[in-house]
Amino acid sequence: MRALCWVAADELAVREVPDPELRNERDAIVRVRRSSTSGADLPLLAGRDPLLRAGDVLGTEFLGEVVEAGPAVRRHRVGDRVVVGASVACGGCWYCRRGRHSCCDNGSTDPATADPGWERSDAGCFGRPPAAGGFAGGHAEYVRVPYADVGAFRVPDAVGDDRALFAADAAPTGWLAAELGDVRPGDVVAVWGAGAVGQLTARAALMRGADRVVVVDRHEERLRMAERHSGAEPLDYRRTDIPSELRDRSGGRGADVCVLAVGAPPARSVTERLAGRGTDRPDALHEAVHACRKDGVVVVLGGAEAFVDAFPLGAVTDRRLTLRGARRPDLRDVPMLLHRMARDELRTEHLATHQLPLEDGPHGYALFRDRADGCVRAVFTP
Ligand SMILES: [Zn+2]
To answer: For all residues of the chain together, what is the average pLDDT?
Structure first.
């Protein structure tokens, strides 16, 4: 089959690779109909993960049709149209039984190769190196889906592929962020990053009853999109003092909940420093801590850099902040999100700004990486 493979830093290629096969009785094979780029792919693309090997297939977020199911798969049949949650989780461990699939103990096929920074494995993930399970991703014609009853979800007829695709990762991650932030009716919520996850975090916060949601970014098209489709208030951090503006919009107290959805939080300041800009600006994480009200919650999403220098821990204790983090979504919210999509309460298809055949995957990733041509997500069809 054809698949989009990592080759070397900043180099991808569509290659012929072996078809996936059922390896145990709970597996299914899915023929991919759509797959999307994801911000967490960018450090991999840049070659920053030493465990990624040439030929590994990327692709965290995908949707397709079941073409083969192992004998222990109960919830799915051949022909089902399914969206597959980005987290690979067993469904039976201590964490999974409590709905915290992203912390699954059995998501990795090689638990000895845990995340080298933390010496502990969490849920697996499609299109990731061995520390995250080493499962081949969705930028391919076919994918092997382990624990298919746990991670694959039948898509309601009323929900089209382009919408349902984002129930795999971006929508449940956004929902989880709002939940970790304990967003309540009347809250003022600030989200750094107007990419797909940031926009869907904003949407989730509004669905949970937030009074105002502010999205912070510097890309005009993304800010306009967040405003139009998510109902968020856009703020360009190049033109605004964000903590002071958030105090103004929250009766002087600061945002109740601050969410970082910028992929790798310190990267912005590093990028700006390299570009000779913004050397006097705090990075997004510092900004979020400073913008949060006393007793508020700061949620950090995504593949954050492993270590952050000069973290303002004093502000966390002095102002009684709660700091929470998540790298992957749980699976328990996917059916609810699909249901909201079917009722038209949650629309996501606008995020697929670029639809390309899988053969154009390298070009799609270049657009996505550079945020060129207004790219929010590049979506591929095999
Ligand atoms: Zn588990």
So the answer is: 90
CA–CA separation, 134 and 52 (whole Å): 9
Nearest of 271, 182, 198, 280 to residue 235 by alpha carbon = 198
CA of 328 to the centre of ligand 1 (A): 14
Name 189's bridge partners. 213, 257
Nearest to 326 by CA among 86, 59, 146: 86
How many whole angstroms from 14 Cα to the centroid of ligand 1? 33
Burial 213-248 (b: 16+ CB within 10 A, else e): bbbbbbbeebbebbbebbebbbbebeeeebbebbbe
User: What are the pLDDT digits (tens) for 89-100?
Assistant: 999 999 999 999
Distance from C-alpha of 166 to C-alpha of 197, rounded to nearest angstrom: 9
- 302 C-alpha to center of ligand 1: Å? 20
pLDDT band at 318 (very low <50, low <70, confident <90, very high): very high
Residue 192: its H or E element: strand 188-192
The residue-averaged pLDDT of 140-163 equals 98
CB atoms within 10 A of CB 153: 23
Read off the pLDDT band of 134 (50, 70, 90). confident
Q: Around ion ligand 1, which residues have CB less than 5 A away?
A: 89-90, 93, 96, 104, 106
